[in-house]
Amino acid sequence: MNLILHLLLDAAVIFGLAYIMPQVDVKNFGTALLIAVLLGLLNFFVGWIIRFPLNLITFFLLTGIVRILVTALLLKLIDRILDSFTIHGFWPALVIALAVAVAGMLIDRSAPSEQMVESGYVVSILQSLRLG
């Protein structure tokens, strides 16, 4: 469920920023969803290969910044792969990567913790919402 939410939010962020930024062009929301899926797959399979040496160089002190830079590089790679997605320049890719990172952080922060679920707190809130 969390994966689907992340993919949909990433696609919405990419599509929304493409609407706002003239340097970014996305054909439709389906293309944005495909970009989000490709970004997730590339981050999983290739991203760690790029991130690990960069994190070693920075002594793992700048992992967040390295993750955003690698995501921007992967967005530029997706730009080369897909004809229906274009980014003119590295800075727009960096802005999209930063927005995707912030959106993902907000989702992860708002999700209930395991302790909340185990204690029944989340269930009691859902039951009170149904009754009220």
Automatic annotation (TrEMBL):
<keyword id="KW-0812">Transmembrane</keyword>
<dbReference type="Pfam" id="PF04020">
    <property type="entry name" value="Phage_holin_4_2"/>
</dbReference>
<feature type="transmembrane region" description="Helical">
    <location>
        <begin position="90"/>
        <end position="107"/>
    </location>
</feature>
<feature type="transmembrane region" description="Helical">
    <location>
        <begin position="57"/>
        <end position="78"/>
    </location>
</feature>
<keyword id="KW-1133">Transmembrane helix</keyword>
<feature type="transmembrane region" description="Helical">
    <location>
        <begin position="28"/>
        <end position="50"/>
    </location>
</feature>
<protein>
    <recommendedName>
        <fullName>Phage holin family protein</fullName>
    </recommendedName>
</protein>
<keyword id="KW-0472">Membrane</keyword>
<dbReference type="InterPro" id="IPR007165">
    <property type="entry name" value="Phage_holin_4_2"/>
</dbReference>
